[in-house]
Design a protein that fits this description.
The chain is an alpha/beta fold and 352 residues long. The chain has 15 helices and 7 strands. Helix content is 54%, strand content 7%. The protein is globular.
């Protein structure tokens, strides 16, 4: 007898491919997978009118209402953050979770997030820090970009993919988001939202960076594409070609088709993927994530051998100011290098 796969059943529930089955033999494992994938709120809305085990219902309902309360508080803080930055003459682009909750999630309880991500121009970093200090925010000693205060965490970025500290990523994502950014809402002076196409292209790299480890990020992407009109899809197609983002988009579209049955518009075309690329992507469907292998896909996104070699060197032998060095030191960094080469070998072997 084949044992049911809780992770696959979760994907089918979230995508609507399968109905809720109260008799599924391992609802506890399904709920655990939902927690790992950050889709507890979505799963709660799917099962709340069905007779799933009571402990599972309670766990999902608790997560939903905790997310609802936290996100309601964060969304209410956006006008205050706008005024705080405006007083110092700082512009900031809001992106990732906070922008997505604001734009595409009608119910804030179904999209978890831990912080508010803001992008400021490098030359305005000092003014942004001053604005945060004046508002009684304090920088996290472990993570220099994190600022905590008033029950809120703000993750302050100077470049979307930390290109300032990992220069090899410059060739991965040459998108300049400022020229097409507009005010978040009428009346906002400092908080901006990026062009929808720029945001989608960044989110594709964010997924690759984290090896597709959370289903909620694919749900984000799916909802953004489904809500886009024909003009926005045409603009996205144009920017994909302009910035050479065909491969990173192809990876996301491959997963959306596999997990959600999404059919991309014809203007996106269909990029032919190699066996190693398909193997890494299919790990998401088979076991919930690609482990450390997801980052290997960035090598296929880079335009030439030289940029790939530079990228690998910076990843494995980072300078002391890079995010890698700040997060990992000594033996732990050596273990990361060892695991990278082991996974590279495994991926090359299994991807044949």
């Amino acid at each position: 007898m084949i044992k049911p796969n809780p992770c696959q059943y979760l994907y089918d529930l979230i995508s609507g491919r399968r109905p809720v089955d109260p008799g599924f033999p391992d609802w506890t494992a399904v709920a655990a997978a939902a927690c790992d994938e950050h889709v507890q709120g979505l799963l709660f809305l799917r099962v709340k009118n069905h007779r799933v085990p009571e402990p599972v219902r309670w766990q999902l309902e608790s997560a939903y209402y905790a997310t609802l309360a936290g996100n309601t508080f964060r969304m209410a803080a956006l006008p205050l953050i706008d005024r705080m930055l405006s007083r110092e003459g700082v512009s900031a682009i809001i992106f990732k979770g906070a922008l997505l909750v604001h734009q595409i999630y009608e119910d804030p309880g179904i999209r978890p997030m831990e912080d508010i991500d803001l992008l400021v121009r490098p030359e305005q970093a000092g003014q942004a820090h001053q604005a945060l200090r004046k508002a009684q925010f304090e920088v996290d000693s472990r993570f220099p970009g994190m600022w905590r205060g008033k029950g809120i965490v703000i993750d302050l970025h100077h470049h979307l993919l930390h290109q300032d500290r990992i220069a090899g990523r410059e060739n991965l994502f040459p998108v300049e988001p400022w020229s097409d950014a507009v005010p978040l809402e009428p009346g906002y002076a400092s908080l901006l939202k990026p062009d929808p196409a720029d945001h989608l292209l960044f989110l594709a790299h964010h997924l690759i960076k984290h090896s597709f480890s959370r289903l909620i990020w694919l749900v984000d992407f799916y909802r953004l594409l489904e809500s886009a009109d024909n003009i926005q899809l045409a603009q996205l197609s144009e920017k994909i070609a302009r910035y050479g983002q065909e491969r990173s988009m192809a990876y996301i579209l491959y997963l959306l088709e596999a997990l959600f049955g999404y059919r991309p518009p014809a203007q996106f075309g269909k990029k032919r993927l190699g066996p190693l690329e398909r193997y890494i992507l299919e790990l998401k469907g088979r076991r919930g994530g690609a482990g450390d292998l997801g980052n290997l896909l960035w090598l296929f996104c880079l335009p030439d051998f030289r940029s790939r070699l530079w990228f690998i060197a910076e990843l494995l032998f980072p300078g002391k100011n890079s995010p890698v060095s700040q997060s990992f030191e000594g033996n732990r960094l050596r273990r990361i290098r060892k695991r990278f080469f082991r996974n590279l070998g495994a991926g090359l072997g299994m991807g044949r």
